[in-house]
Write a structure and sequence with these properties.
Blueprint (H helix, E strand, L loop, with lengths): L1 E8 L3 H13 L4 E8 L5 E8 L3 H13 L3 E6 L1
Antiparallel strand pairs: 1-3, 1-4, 2-3
Length: 76
């Protein structure tokens, strides 16, 4: 089952690379992602993960909350 994490980033592509690198390093199975600009400094970022069990998705959300420039993390 795929689930989507949605959040805002404040450094554009730099934050996107940081998020995807963290997810890869932590061995999450990323199925897709998208990024839409909100204004000059902020973007809406969505990452779709393959969720094998409930705990792995919750762990991914906690990892996103730890990253600098990432805020408003929630499941879509």
């Amino acid at each position: 089952m795929c689930r989507t994490i949605s959040f805002r980033v404040s450094s554009g592509m730099d934050s996107a690379v940081r998020v995807l690198t963290t997810l890869r390093r932590k061995q999450f199975d990323v199925k897709g992602f998208s990024m839409l600009p909100l204004d000059a400094n902020n973007s809406q970022f969505k990452v779709t993960l393959e969720d094998e069990n409930k705990q792995s998705f919750e762990r991914a959300m906690l990892q996103m909350k730890k990253i600098i420039d990432v805020y408003d993390v929630y499941e879509q």
